[in-house]
Design brief:
Blueprint: E1 5-9, E2 13-22, H1 27-37, E3 46-57, H2 59-74, E4 78-84, H3 86-94, E5 100-101, H4 111-142, H5 154-164, H6 169-193, H7 200-238, H8 241-247, H9 252-289, H10 295-305, H11 308-334, H12 340-370
Parallel strand pairs: 2-3, 3-4, 4-5
Antiparallel strand pairs: 1-2
Helix pairs in contact: 4-9, 4-11, 5-9, 6-7, 6-9, 7-9, 7-10, 7-11, 7-12, 9-11, 11-12
């Protein structure tokens, strides 16, 4: 047997120590060696498998571990995994190969210990999020002034603008129109009671430009584009494409996050303006058809009610919401663990966290702009 496999024989225990690579290139040779060593395995014997020295393990290696376990079981023995390195454990988990473990069950941590561990994990996640945001902003600005391969890739930004912005126009326009119709309908009943029909222009115009337009657009993009970014990033981590970029000397944030950052930063304000216009159009339709207001009266009242700061407030919010969406999606994508299930968890967490932070940021801006007037 070579240095990759060591067997120590005893009447009831066999120790199999695997070192080095356990992949499709080395599995045939190792399988032949192990098969020879297990020919005289006595009934009821225990085979202890030690994978602590394994440097790499792929699907072939994981399948080999299962074959060995089944071979030992057919001969009346049992295979026990004594030790395994991080890469081996991760690969066995990804390919769902369950081996009996000889380690005693882990001690259940106490309540205070769990609380401290949760607080430490949350703090570590916040630090990683801040580092990701800082790296993205640095590379996004620095790349505008470079002329080498580290510059911002214009074609990648345009591609992301099409995917994030242009392909979202339909859903944003439809939802914004329906929201404008709904807000106007709910307000029309109360306004008619007081003979204040004309003020529906004020209500719909200000509500859409300062609140509903930016917020609805951000929620839609968080569910559509944010989920897409998180799924793409996490899939690239699982398939080791991110590691390949690092091996080639390419920073993943510069190559993957910056184009999406510029794509959503440039398109979300435009989508917000579209949302404002369609929402106001919905209010206009209700005012003309239900409240019998004239077109000129509605437009005059709308122009008099809206101010430049209302539109600018909505645009500032939209840019901030765009940054929240892309940072959260990329952060969740890079921190994925496991296989396909991990991708689903990261995508779901990205959408939920993005929507929560967008609403929290909207509340903060409301305090900042409204009470600051």
């Amino acid at each position: 047997m070579d240095d990759g496999l060591n067997a120590r024989k005893s009447p009831a225990i066999r120790d199999l120590v695997i070192e080095g690579a356990l992949d499709r290139h080395t599995v045939p040779e190792r399988h032949a060696e192990v098969a020879r060593g297990l020919r005289d395995l006595p009934a009821g014997a225990e085979v202890r498998l030690d994978l602590s020295g394994v440097t790499s393990l792929d699907s072939a290696g994981a399948a080999w571990c299962r074959v060995v376990a089944e071979t030992v079981a057919r001969r009346g023995g049992r295979l026990v995994l004594t030790e395994a390195g991080p890469k081996a454990r991760e690969a066995l988990s990804v390919f769902r190969v369950r081996l009996e473990s000889a380690a005693p069950p882990a001690r259940r941590p106490g309540r205070l210990e769990r609380l401290g561990g949760g607080a430490y994990g949350a703090l570590l996640a916040v630090v990683e999020f801040c580092v990701l945001a800082a790296d993205t902003l640095f590379f996004a600005v620095e790349g505008l002034f470079r002329r080498d391969r580290r510059r911002v890739r214009g074609h990648a930004v345009i591609e992301q603008m099409v995917r994030i912005g242009l392909e979202s126009v339909g859903i944003v326009a439809l939802i914004s129109l329906l929201v404008g119709l709904t807000v106007a309908l709910q307000s029309a009943y109360q306004l008619r009671q007081f003979g204040a029909n004309i003020y529906i222009a004020n209500l719909v115009g200000v509500a859409m430009t300062r609140e509903m337009g930016p917020l609805m657009t951000a929620i839609l993009l968080a569910g559509r584009s944010g989920a897409s970014i998180a799924a793409e990033m996490s899939t690239m981590v699982i398939t080791e494409e991110v590691d390949a970029l690092k091996t080639m000397g390419i920073h993943p944030v510069r190559y993957l996050v910056v184009p999406r950052f510029w794509g959503i930063t440039l398109t979300q304000p435009l989508l917000t303006v579209l949302s404002d216009a369609l929402g106001i159009l919905g209010g206009f339709l209700i005012a003309v058809s239900y409240l019998q207001l004239g077109v000129t009266s509605f437009l005059d009242q709308l122009i008099g009610a809206l101010q430049v700061k209302d539109v600018l407030t909505g645009l500032v919010k939209s840019v901030s919401f765009a940054w929240i969406i892309v940072f959260v999606a990329a952060h969740r994508g890079f921190r994925v663990r496991g296989g396909a299930e991990g991708v689903g968890i990261a995508t779901t967490a990205s959408v939920v966290q993005s929507i929560f932070l967008v609403i929290a940021a909207d509340a903060f801006f409301s305090l900042l702009f409204y009470f600051g007037d």
